[in-house]
Each structure stands twice: as C-alpha cells, then as structure tokens.
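Progress against Task 2.4 (sequence-to-structure conversion) is shown through the following example record, which the project officer requested during the mid-term review.
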Amino acid sequence: MTNKCIVLLCCALAVVPAFGAQRVAMRPRPYVDSADQELIREIVDLERQAREASLRRDAEFSQRTLADHYVAITPLGQVTTNQETIGARRSGQLRYEAMNITDMVVRVYGDTAVVTARADVKGHQLGEDFSGPYRYTRVWVRRSGHWQTVSYQATVTE
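Structure tokens generated for the chain above:
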C-alpha cells in the first residue's frame, strides 16, 4: 500500500511544482540574454499553473503538458508514464491540502529547460498521509512552440 501511495505521490508531484509566494532563482547572469530570461518566466508560469492544477485535481493540465513519452522516477525508483500520471490525477484518490515550492532554479538550454526545486506537501492518497519534504528535477522541452514535460524525478528529503 505504501509503495502504491509513493508511486501516486510521484505522479502527482510530476505536475505539482509551481508556487504562490515562493522564491525563484532568476538572478541576472552575464551569459543569460533577455530571450532566455523570457523563457525562464514562461517555465516559472507553467510551474505555477502545475501547482494550481494539482491543488484543484485538474487532469487536463497533465494531458496538455506531459509529452507522449514522458517518464517519471518515483522516490522509490519506480518508473511511471504519462498515462499513469494522468490516471492518478483523474482517479480523485489523490488529495493535496497544501503545497509549498521553494528554492526553484530554472536553467535554459535552447529549447530545453531544467527545473530543480524543493516541494513541501501536505496530502493524502487512499487515506494514507504522504506529507513531507521532497526535492525534484523536471525537464521541459519546447516543441512546435509549446512546452512539454519529458522527464521528472523526485526524492524524499529530511
């Protein structure tokens, strides 16, 4: 039961990270041009939308933003697909009460963006509490002008 909850938690976290009043690293760096700064703002906004979608249990956001060959690695090392992630969201068995994203850093490499952050969540899956701190990495790729998540990995922290 615990393994199933961790898998579903990771599925949910895959579309979770965004923020309300959290910190985002957008410090100007000499090698980051204004176009990259705009791309960073786009990714930060997508992360915000992902957080809101998770709190509302909005599976359509996942449907729109997860690539066909999306893969997530759970804190237990299990691999999940986009269909499993979308199914977990649609089931309604996963409920978030709160989500706080901090220490977010966005790095842009052409049409690829890598996000790292900390997520402190409070929630339940099938009645089991999965609240706690996590760190995650998410990879976004821009295809035909649209950003999609291609990979996600979460780790439980203390």
